[in-house]
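Co-fold these.
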Amino acid sequence: DAEITQSPRHKITETGRQVTLACHQTWNHNNMFWYRQDLGHGLRLIHYSYGVQDTNKGEVSDGYSVSRSNTEDLPLTLESAASSQTSVYFCASSETKPGQGSTEAFFGQGTRLTVV
Amino acid sequence: GENVEQHPSTLSVQEGDSAVIKCTYSDSASNYFPWYKQELGKRPQLIIDIRSNVGEKKDQRIAVTLNKTAKHFSLHITETQPEDSAVYFCAAPNTGRRALTFGSGTRLQVQP
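Predicted complex below.
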């Protein structure tokens, strides 16, 4: 069965370190997204990609970067981790159908990141 | 960009009662409105969605209504059960029409 997986599931890192969270989907979806989830804020969009070599900034992109070198993967990098980036991170993917716009987004299991 | 407001933030009902969660959106061009359920420690999962060419959609005990003129949509859960207890999120497409902007969530608790 097709799926979307994130790794690691849990990570503790120190302030100032570079951290990369992995996201891999086998749906062959063209769209991939990264969200962070914090109490009281719901899911906030960090970065997203509509296809290979395409990346776009979301509403909370400062301090994060992504790259899309193939269809399956969208790794999220925290260039210099800060305590404010302690959060649960969700990767998601979706397919765009001609003339239909947005469709269901499928989420990974999440990565709980703690920056100490 | 799209702005999605969701109310209430918490909702407690007795088992068997109905629950209603409401969302408003800002972009009149938005055309897709999904609802996600997130159980504790789990990933969000789609429970129902509606496109702007219809006003209501039902799936067993859940329904979504859409008022495009007023730019709001609502989730209705009838005959609530304890397993309906979760956080529910509404969403609408962002400016690019592919990424979703989410509401802040409603924690629903169904008391047995």
